[in-house]
Automatic annotation (TrEMBL):
Native organism taxonomy: Bacteria, Pseudomonadati, Pseudomonadota, Betaproteobacteria, Burkholderiales
Sequence segments annotated as region (Disordered): 1-20, 95-115
Membrane-spanning segments: 123-144
Native source organism of the sequence: Comamonas koreensis
Keywords in alphabetical order: Membrane, Transmembrane, Transmembrane helix
Name of this chain's protein: Zinc ribbon domain-containing protein
Length: 199
């Protein structure tokens, strides 16, 4: 073995840690799931290929593509889209190198679930506003209707209504009917003066 032997140089780098490429070592260590022996073997193999001018297929840079269905960013060699579950194959769709449509409208998710469409808030306004108004009016009516002033107004209105019922009775003679009509009119005018509204 000579000192120019790429295998020997790569092994010496991997063993000593001196002159070792930190990025390559980290990648090899991670892909070996923390197994130091496997990481060294992968590092040596990659370094030899680099020294000989070859590119390892296992360490090739991932070509980025986009799903033609949902524009999810994925590998050009993917078999399916993890976002929308579209299947890719030789005789089917394939990932594209550029996103389809306007990039600002892409919906990317990190979950295994498809991207949810943003629902329009219009229906919330159409349903919510009338419901809120009805609740507000009922609440206002309960507050105002329960006040002592409202109760007094209601009692005065009921008295006027009773007076008009008595006036409409046909069993009253003419004098009593005129007297009842005059009393009802006086009650109505007193109500208008006191409450500033019609009964």
């Amino acid at each position: 073995m000579t000192s120019n032997d790429p295998w020997a140089k790569a092994l010496a780098e991997a063993e000593s840690g001196q002159g070792r490429e930190p990025g390559l070592w980290a990648r090899c260590f991670a892909e070996a799931d923390g197994d130091n022996g496997k990481a060294k073997a992968a590092y040596v193999k990659q370094r030899v290929m680099e020294m000989e001018g070859q590119e390892s297929t296992s360490f090739q840079r991932r070509e980025v593509g986009y799903c033609p269905s949902c524009n999810y960013e994925l590998s050009m060699s993917a078999d399916a889209c993890p976002n929308c579950k579209a299947l890719f194959g030789d005789d089917a769709w394939k990932p594209t190198r550029t996103p389809q449509g306007h990039p600002g409208n892409n919906k990317f998710t990190q979950s295994s679930e498809p991207a949810a469409e943003k629902s329009s808030g219009t229906w919330k306004w159409v349903v919510g506003v009338p419901v809120a108004l009805v609740v507000a009016f009922l609440g206002f009516g309960a507050v105002v209707g329960g006040s002592p002033e409202a109760k007094a107004r209601a009692a005065d209105r009921d008295a006027i209504a009773y007076c008009k019922q008595q006036q409409e009775k046909r069993s009253l003679d003419a004098t009593t009917a005129r007297l009842t009509a005059r009393v009802c009119e006086e009650m109505e005018s007193a109500y208008k003066e006191k409450w500033r509204r019609n009964p």
